[in-house]
Amino acid sequence: MTKTPGPPGQPGQKTPGHEIADALGTLLRRTTRARLYAHLTEGLGEALDELTYPILSGLTRTGPCSAADLGRAVELDRTTVTRRADRLERAGLLRREPDPADGRATLLAVTDEGRELIQVTRQRLAARVEQSLASWPEADAEVFARCLRRFVDEGPFAEGGAEAGEG
Length: 167
Description:
Strand order of the largest sheet: 1-2
Low-confidence stretches: 162-167
Radius of gyration: 20 Å
Strand content: 5-15%
Mean pLDDT: 88
Number of strands: 2
CATH architecture: Orthogonal Bundle
Largest sheet: 2 strands, antiparallel
Order of helices and strands: HHHHHEEHHH
Number of domains: 1
Shape: globular
Number of helices: 8
Oligomer: single chain
Helix content: 55-70%
Protein backbone atom coordinates (compact mmCIF):
# COMPACT_ATOMS: atom_id res chain seq x y z
CA MET A 1 0.00 0.00 0.00
CA THR A 2 1.23 3.53 -0.76
CA LYS A 3 2.06 5.30 2.48
CA THR A 4 2.30 9.03 2.77
CA PRO A 5 3.05 11.07 5.89
CA GLY A 6 0.37 12.36 8.21
CA PRO A 7 -2.78 10.90 9.74
CA PRO A 8 -5.62 9.75 7.48
CA GLY A 9 -7.71 12.63 6.23
CA GLN A 10 -4.79 15.04 6.30
CA PRO A 11 -3.47 16.58 3.08
CA GLY A 12 -1.10 14.15 1.36
CA GLN A 13 -2.51 11.03 3.08
CA LYS A 14 -4.47 8.54 1.03
CA THR A 15 -7.52 7.04 2.69
CA PRO A 16 -8.29 3.33 2.30
CA GLY A 17 -10.93 4.34 -0.24
CA HIS A 18 -8.33 6.14 -2.34
CA GLU A 19 -5.88 3.23 -2.07
CA ILE A 20 -8.56 0.76 -3.17
CA ALA A 21 -9.73 3.04 -5.99
CA ASP A 22 -6.15 3.32 -7.27
CA ALA A 23 -5.67 -0.46 -7.15
CA LEU A 24 -9.01 -1.05 -8.90
CA GLY A 25 -8.00 1.44 -11.58
CA THR A 26 -4.99 -0.74 -12.33
CA LEU A 27 -6.97 -4.00 -12.26
CA LEU A 28 -9.76 -2.67 -14.46
CA ARG A 29 -7.47 -1.10 -17.05
CA ARG A 30 -8.06 -2.62 -20.49
CA THR A 31 -4.34 -3.31 -20.97
CA THR A 32 -4.17 -5.16 -17.64
CA ARG A 33 -7.13 -7.34 -18.59
CA ALA A 34 -5.74 -8.01 -22.09
CA ARG A 35 -2.40 -9.09 -20.63
CA LEU A 36 -4.16 -11.43 -18.18
CA TYR A 37 -6.41 -12.87 -20.91
CA ALA A 38 -3.38 -13.50 -23.13
CA HIS A 39 -1.74 -15.47 -20.32
CA LEU A 40 -4.92 -17.44 -19.54
CA THR A 41 -5.52 -18.42 -23.16
CA GLU A 42 -1.91 -19.17 -24.16
CA GLY A 43 -1.67 -22.42 -26.11
CA LEU A 44 -5.43 -23.04 -26.21
CA GLY A 45 -5.79 -22.58 -29.96
CA GLU A 46 -5.82 -19.67 -32.38
CA ALA A 47 -9.49 -18.83 -31.86
CA LEU A 48 -9.25 -18.26 -28.11
CA ASP A 49 -7.12 -15.21 -27.29
CA GLU A 50 -7.28 -11.94 -25.37
CA LEU A 51 -9.92 -10.62 -27.81
CA THR A 52 -12.26 -13.61 -27.91
CA TYR A 53 -11.84 -14.73 -24.31
CA PRO A 54 -14.29 -12.12 -22.92
CA ILE A 55 -16.92 -13.33 -25.41
CA LEU A 56 -16.61 -17.01 -24.53
CA SER A 57 -16.22 -16.37 -20.81
CA GLY A 58 -19.15 -13.96 -20.77
CA LEU A 59 -21.33 -16.38 -22.69
CA THR A 60 -20.42 -19.12 -20.22
CA ARG A 61 -21.69 -16.85 -17.41
CA THR A 62 -24.86 -15.64 -19.13
CA GLY A 63 -25.95 -18.78 -20.93
CA PRO A 64 -27.37 -18.59 -24.45
CA CYS A 65 -28.17 -15.03 -25.50
CA SER A 66 -28.17 -12.67 -28.45
CA ALA A 67 -25.04 -10.88 -29.60
CA ALA A 68 -26.60 -7.59 -28.45
CA ASP A 69 -27.33 -8.94 -24.95
CA LEU A 70 -23.86 -10.46 -24.69
CA GLY A 71 -22.36 -7.17 -25.84
CA ARG A 72 -24.08 -5.36 -22.98
CA ALA A 73 -22.84 -8.01 -20.51
CA VAL A 74 -19.20 -7.77 -21.66
CA GLU A 75 -19.30 -4.07 -22.59
CA LEU A 76 -18.64 -4.50 -26.32
CA ASP A 77 -20.79 -3.42 -29.24
CA ARG A 78 -22.87 -6.01 -31.08
CA THR A 79 -20.76 -5.94 -34.24
CA THR A 80 -17.57 -6.62 -32.27
CA VAL A 81 -19.28 -9.49 -30.46
CA THR A 82 -20.52 -10.91 -33.76
CA ARG A 83 -17.11 -10.70 -35.41
CA ARG A 84 -15.37 -12.40 -32.48
CA ALA A 85 -18.17 -14.97 -32.14
CA ASP A 86 -17.61 -15.89 -35.80
CA ARG A 87 -14.01 -16.89 -34.95
CA LEU A 88 -15.16 -18.91 -31.96
CA GLU A 89 -17.87 -20.61 -33.99
CA ARG A 90 -15.42 -21.62 -36.75
CA ALA A 91 -13.26 -23.21 -34.04
CA GLY A 92 -16.24 -25.11 -32.59
CA LEU A 93 -16.22 -23.21 -29.29
CA LEU A 94 -19.67 -21.68 -29.67
CA ARG A 95 -22.69 -22.26 -31.85
CA ARG A 96 -25.65 -20.26 -33.06
CA GLU A 97 -29.12 -21.58 -32.38
CA PRO A 98 -32.63 -20.30 -33.05
CA ASP A 99 -34.18 -18.18 -30.31
CA PRO A 100 -37.22 -20.14 -29.07
CA ALA A 101 -38.91 -16.86 -28.12
CA ASP A 102 -38.39 -15.26 -31.55
CA GLY A 103 -37.95 -17.45 -34.62
CA ARG A 104 -36.24 -14.59 -36.48
CA ALA A 105 -33.50 -14.19 -33.86
CA THR A 106 -30.38 -16.21 -33.17
CA LEU A 107 -28.76 -16.98 -29.84
CA LEU A 108 -25.09 -17.63 -29.18
CA ALA A 109 -24.35 -20.69 -27.02
CA VAL A 110 -21.14 -22.25 -25.71
CA THR A 111 -20.27 -25.74 -26.95
CA ASP A 112 -18.91 -28.46 -24.68
CA GLU A 113 -15.43 -27.82 -26.10
CA GLY A 114 -15.77 -24.09 -25.35
CA ARG A 115 -16.92 -24.82 -21.81
CA GLU A 116 -13.89 -27.10 -21.29
CA LEU A 117 -11.50 -24.36 -22.43
CA ILE A 118 -13.12 -21.82 -20.12
CA GLN A 119 -12.67 -24.30 -17.26
CA VAL A 120 -8.96 -24.50 -18.15
CA THR A 121 -8.66 -20.69 -18.11
CA ARG A 122 -10.39 -20.48 -14.73
CA GLN A 123 -8.03 -23.11 -13.32
CA ARG A 124 -5.10 -21.11 -14.69
CA LEU A 125 -6.43 -17.94 -13.08
CA ALA A 126 -6.86 -19.64 -9.70
CA ALA A 127 -3.32 -21.06 -9.94
CA ARG A 128 -1.94 -17.63 -10.81
CA VAL A 129 -3.70 -16.08 -7.81
CA GLU A 130 -2.43 -18.88 -5.55
CA GLN A 131 1.10 -18.31 -6.86
CA SER A 132 0.79 -14.57 -6.15
CA LEU A 133 -0.34 -15.26 -2.59
CA ALA A 134 2.26 -17.98 -1.91
CA SER A 135 4.60 -15.59 -0.10
CA TRP A 136 1.80 -14.22 2.10
CA PRO A 137 1.12 -15.65 5.54
CA GLU A 138 -1.84 -18.00 5.19
CA ALA A 139 -3.94 -15.96 7.62
CA ASP A 140 -3.37 -12.79 5.56
CA ALA A 141 -4.42 -14.56 2.36
CA GLU A 142 -7.57 -15.88 4.05
CA VAL A 143 -8.48 -12.44 5.41
CA PHE A 144 -7.84 -10.86 2.00
CA ALA A 145 -10.08 -13.45 0.30
CA ARG A 146 -12.90 -12.86 2.81
CA CYS A 147 -12.60 -9.07 2.62
CA LEU A 148 -12.44 -9.06 -1.18
CA ARG A 149 -15.53 -11.30 -1.39
CA ARG A 150 -17.36 -8.99 1.01
CA PHE A 151 -16.31 -5.92 -0.98
CA VAL A 152 -17.53 -7.50 -4.22
CA ASP A 153 -20.80 -8.64 -2.64
CA GLU A 154 -21.54 -5.45 -0.69
CA GLY A 155 -19.45 -2.69 -2.28
CA PRO A 156 -20.02 -0.33 -5.18
CA PHE A 157 -19.86 -3.15 -7.76
CA ALA A 158 -22.58 -5.27 -6.12
CA GLU A 159 -25.96 -5.64 -7.79
CA GLY A 160 -27.80 -2.47 -6.84
CA GLY A 161 -24.57 -1.12 -5.30
CA ALA A 162 -24.70 2.21 -7.11
CA GLU A 163 -28.31 2.79 -6.10
CA ALA A 164 -27.64 1.73 -2.52
CA GLY A 165 -24.83 4.27 -2.23
CA GLU A 166 -26.91 7.19 -3.49
CA GLY A 167 -28.49 9.60 -1.01
